[in-house]
Amino acid sequence: MEREAFGIAEYPGERTGMAKYKFSIDIGGTFIDAVLFDFISEELVAFKLPTTPEDPAAGVIAAAERLEVPVNEIFEFVHGTTLGLNAILERKGTSVGIITNSGFEDIFEIGRGSLSFTDMYRFDFEQSRKIVERRNVRGVGGRIDAYGAEIDSLDIDGLRLAASELVRDGDCKALAISFLHSYANDDHEVRAVELLRREFPGVEISSGAALAREYREYERTSTAVLDAYIKPVLRNYLGRVAGGIESLGFGGNKYIMNSSGGALTFDIGEANPVATVMSGPAGGVAGALHVARHAERKNILSIDIGGTSLDACLIIDFEPTDVFEAVIDNFPVLQPIFDIRNLGAGGGSIARVDNRLLRVGPQSAGAEPGPACYGRGGELATVTDAALVLGYLDSSNFMGGEMKIANDLARAALSEHICKPLSIGIEEAAKSVFDVLVSRTSSSIKEMLLERGRDPRDFTLLAFGGCGPLLGPMIQRELEMPELMIPPLPSVFSAWGMMASDLSFSDSSSVLEPVSEASLRRLRSLSRSLEERSLAELRRRIGADVAPKIKFFARIRFIGQEHTLSVGYHESDSHEALFKRFSDAHFDRFGHTFDEPAEIVSLSIRLTIVTRKPRISCERARLRDTGEPVKASMLDMASGKVVETIRTRRSGLAPGYCVSGPMLVDDEGSTLVIHADQSLAVEEDGIISVSLVE
Amino acid sequence: MTSRAAELEIVSGLFLSAAEQMRRTLVRTAFNAVIYEVLDFGISVADSKGRMIAEAAGITSFIGANDYALNTLIKKLDMSALRPGDVVMLNYPYWNSAHASDALLMAPVFIDGDDIDIFLCVRAHWLDIGAKDSGYVIDSCDIHQEGLILPGVRIIKEGVLDEDLWKILEFNSRLPEAIRGDFGAQVASLRTGERCVRDIFRKFGKANTYDAIDELIDHADWETRQALKNFPKGSWTAEEWLDDDGISDRMIKMAVKVTIDDDKFTADFNGSDPMVAGPVNVPFGATTTMTKTYFKFLTSPNSPSNHGHYRALDVKADPGNLFHAVYPSATYMPWTKMVAFEMIAKALAPVVDWIPMSSGGDEPGFMAVGRHGRTGGTFVVSNNEGIGWGATHRHDGANALQHPSTSTVRNTPIEVLERQANLFHEELALINDSGGIGKYRGGLGVRRQVKITSETEIISMKKKSKTSGWGLKGGQPSPVKNHMVLWPGEKREKKVGLHRATLQAGERFINYSAGGAGWGEPAQRDAEAADYDIRNGYVTRRK
Questions:
Q1: Which helix (H) or strand (E) is A508 found in, with range?
Q2: Does position B155 have pLDDT exceeding 50, yes or no?
Q3: Is B427's CB within 8 Å of A431's CB?
Q4: Considering the domain A94-228, what is its CATH architecture?
Q5: pLDDT confidence of residue A619
Q6: Would you give the distance in Å from CA A562 to the centre of its chain?
Q7: Whole-complex ipTM
Q8: What pairing do the DSSP bridges indicate for beta strands A319-320 and A310-316?
Q9: Residues forming CATH 3.40.1360 domain(s) in chain A
Q10: A 121-140 residues inside an 8 A Cβ radius of B
Q11: 8 A C-beta contact, residue A341 and residue A448
Q12: How far apart are CA B382 and CA B387, in angstroms?
């Protein structure tokens, strides 16, 4: 491992030779996935534990306790959690007050006034419970105009009064500060935050422009509100996790994933928790990106298929696609976030007959009660039940033998809910479930690609998650994609991907000038001051001297457009070069461009400290007995017939191994199902590559 | 070996995906924000009989947006003259479902052989097609003031653009580049759809696909009829008033008679006034669309539409009625459709307990046109204002949402309006006490106060500023009506509905939108809910 590639000066324990392990944990809906990599032996340990919803930190600590290595030899811990997201979805955040411009107190409540497509015909729509009660919003004097000029000065006394009313009378534990046009001039927000932090030390404060230097007041306010709303939750949680693992002897760096694949120190994550709301799925994309670069596949479609959902994301030319706006429970969040689409189909998706149609999903049996075959009281037929009936899953060795599942329960559920109403046989019923699911999922993927003018046949499919190896080959066949890759340990790949993420820190400044020679001169001096400012801030936060990689991005739009595109900016750029880069990006994204003036909305900087990453081609420690291949029968999708084949352990497949389907390959948490028109090759690094046979 | 039930679900999903892929192509490549932001378009796939198989969501009330137009084209054109690669363009309002700015492009698909198998349609709003005014027309008196008319002509012949026709279009538009871009996006969308449809036929075979379409339409019909079984049988009427026609001050009566019997749901609009001079007349296609949308909520709000969902629906309005505009009547302002939208609810709510009370009843937005005080460039901006929605027998109405018929459209951010136009905002707030009272309260409307920073023309767009909404069982309508006040607090202060006025720097307007109506006796309101309202200022005084 190259020393200078790693930005942080030193690991704790490094001098004593104790910096051996990197440890990561991803908490999903059902399982805690834990992965430990030994940098000396290059061995990887992975295991799953059930989640502990009543006390999420306890599960993380339990996972650390289960490690069979000295915890003080772990130099880095990376964590992804859906805690912030769940706090929003379940309305379990803190009581938030909003301070905004006087006369505009209702901006957060009015929003954009639209319904989502799923509710568009609900003329009896019921608004859900508010995150901020209207009485907890205060307006204060002060106004900035659209060009950043101050029209009225900030009313400091009014601000003080507003905050004390909210904190003392309104019981607010957190405040969101959001003023009009703060993206253009954040002076009022910055001063308000400083004053409130000083005078109300126990109260969490978030502000709009500090999180997003973007146009659009409602979206910025919403971002600040959600940030404030989950701040105490995440702070408590990370505090407990840190305390727990440190009491076990851990003394290394602690990182939490953000939504765009970067790792944040716990300290930075606590300060801006809204950046972490999509941290779980982001781990998978970070891993996919690492695979793309390592295996030199420039275009990848990554699909993470778990029990309840399928998350898809594109990597184009080695760059993951991201967006700057996500919607969580109808609230917009302006944060860099991977463009991950939830295409709503997983192993728990429920199949049912609707008059004369067979529907699959979107309802899911989830983890509780789960598919019928789990025997936990689920009676409805799910995709997992159908997989068992078709011979894809091995009931005697499910999840590496960690879980018992029952064939007869799966058959009974399908028979009752599908076979009987349709008068069809059990195999036909089970196959039908897959046909419907695969067709719909493939359509959704095509639609997603078409938004960017792309064709699935130009991409390598990378499938992971507990159901990725089962459904990936079927989706590959349906979309006629030339290659499918299955990474090692697919069922814990998101946790693995977290290890492959780099520490990242971002900052931005507004620009609001047309792309011109004069503005580019100003941009150069702005980029230098931004670099100084953010470097100093990062060093302060980490408490060490660091020399990160630095990248600049400019958010640009044609004048009159509402939305911007982010393009790279280099100090040496001429205005023609920057305009062309933007114009090309516009053409690539929308299929056309204009010969019209464009404006730079903001300049942002991303500081990256590269971390040590596990090798993909690692030996896996503590594997179960590899076992001999056994005879099995399965439904082959190519012929539509039940065929005899073998079921083998993935650990028994050596690099260089090639074979044609049909075939079943088990690993600890999933089963790869190859059909007769597919072939499998194990690459040097242990990645399985599946091709379509002509 | 797959089951028929799976095959039907798959074919249905693939046709839906075809429409969805057409939508993503259009949204990705369209030039004008009215298409990619406001979603002012309708996309559909139909069989050779003109029966809609699948459509993609645009604006809420654009359900079946192309059905009437396609069926008219099938009747009016010589279909045997169409060739593979042709694209037909139609914007003649009386044959279409919308005003002249909405250009419908239709492409026949020939799977194999000489017969048309599928029709694809994409209708989208063009920024300028040569109407008398730029932006919007609010006072036309006949169709020829509303834009150049293309009555279903082959603009692309066997894949080749008719350059002569295109020159006419370009020379009749104030924004030729924009319409070229949007036309290109629509054609790309049609080509995407054609590719998808060919894949479906290839995969399932022609006869099998046709059978599946029949079965899917039957299934949708079944679904609708299941829902209709829960409605009472009988006949009910409702009335609503449109402020005026933009030419005279006379209020215009709109009426519907809803009849539900064993196998039909009829909405008869013949009790409405005859056509009027101004541009508020409704093409019959648009009347059908409006009715289908409310019918959708009543019968199958959660499933995607096909022809079968509307087989039990019969819409009636005789030619010459306000709701069946004929040549040469003016049809530019689609506001009639919005104000009339909840008439079916008003007719049925007394006998169907779960139907919501009236919303604010209009889309009370505004446009601003002028020269930018800072950059000197011209601008046109618009904002669709939220209104309160009606309460139901189970819950309060929602605050400040777009009109139900445009429920997916968004308002325009203050920061966009202030930067792109001369509209400095002084206030944006919910109007306290604007929700109609009741056991369940109506949602609140919105007040917006703006100071003009440099000479700007303001177009206030409202067609229900003179009458109130309606509640039931003791629920009250909103005390606030949709309107705009120009020059508030000055001697020349003026309250307007639909109006164009030029304001100078330093002058103000305030835009008001109505709340929704309440349901049930106000005295029966839950004490905790009443406290909550007071505490949060939705209601400022106890009854």
A1: strand A503-514
A2: yes
A3: no
A4: 3-Layer(aba) Sandwich (3.40)
A5: 59
A6: 26
A7: 0.94
A8: antiparallel
A9: 94-228
A10: 121-127, 133-135
A11: yes
A12: 16
Spatial neighbors of B339 by CB under 8 A, at least 6 apart, are: B240, B241, B242, B254, B361, B362, B463, B464
* 8 A C-beta contact, residue A388 and residue A382: no
pLDDT at B241 over 50: yes
Alpha-carbon dihedral sign for residues A592, B174, B104, B224: positive
Contact between residue B26 and residue B18 where contact means Cβ atoms under 8 Å apart: no
Which of A113, A147, A428 lies nearest to residue B401, judging by beta carbons? A113
Beta partners for residue A486, in sequence order: A688
Residue A359, both tokens: 């529907």
Chain A residues closer than 8 Å to B402 by CB: 113-115
Contact B511, B366 (CB under 8 A): yes
CB atoms within 10 A of CB A411: 20
**In DSSP terms, which residues pair with A453 in a beta bridge?**
none
The type of residue at A518 is A
pLDDT in tens, B157-191: 999 999 999 999 999 999 898 898 899 999 999 99
A122/B410 CB distance under 8 A:
no
Just give the CATH number of A503-609.
Answer: 3.30.1490
Cβ atoms B206, A339 nearer than 8 A: no
Q: Identify the residue whose tokens are 């899917």.
A: B216
Neighbours of B393 (CB within 10 A): 19
DSSP letters spanning B521-534: -GGGS-HHHHHHHH
pTM (predicted TM-score)? 0.93
A592 CB neighbours in chain B (<8 A) are 29, 31, 181, 184
* Rounded Cα–Cα distance for residues A585 and A317 (Å): 13
| Local mean pLDDT, 10-residue blocks, chain A (694 residues) | 38 56 88 90 86 88 93 94 90 96 98 92 90 96 96 98 94 97 96 97 95 92 98 95 95 93 91 91 94 95 91 94 88 92 87 94 84 92 96 82 85 97 96 96 95 92 96 97 95 93 88 93 94 91 86 90 87 96 90 87 91 75 63 96 94 90 90 97 92 90
Q: Is B335 helix (H, G, I), strand (E, B) or coil?
A: helix
* Domain layout of chain B by residue ranges: 4-219, 356-543
Residue B422, pLDDT > 60, answer yes
d(CA B213, CA A259): 43
Domain with CATH 3.30.1490 in chain A: 503-609
Percent of chain B at pLDDT > 90 equals 88
- The owner of tokens 């999420």 is A56
Q: A669 and A460 in contact (C-beta within 8 Å)? A: no
Secondary structure of A456-500 as H, E, C letters: HHHCEEEEECCCHHHHHHHHHHHHCCCEEEECCCHHHHHHHHHHC
- Least Cα separation, residue B389 to chain A (angstroms): 8
The kind and range of the H/E element at A290 are: helix A279-295
* Interface contact A115-B297, CB threshold 8 A: no
Residue B202 burial (CB count, 10 A): 12
Query: Which of B278, B260, B279 is closest to B268 using CA atoms?
Result: B260
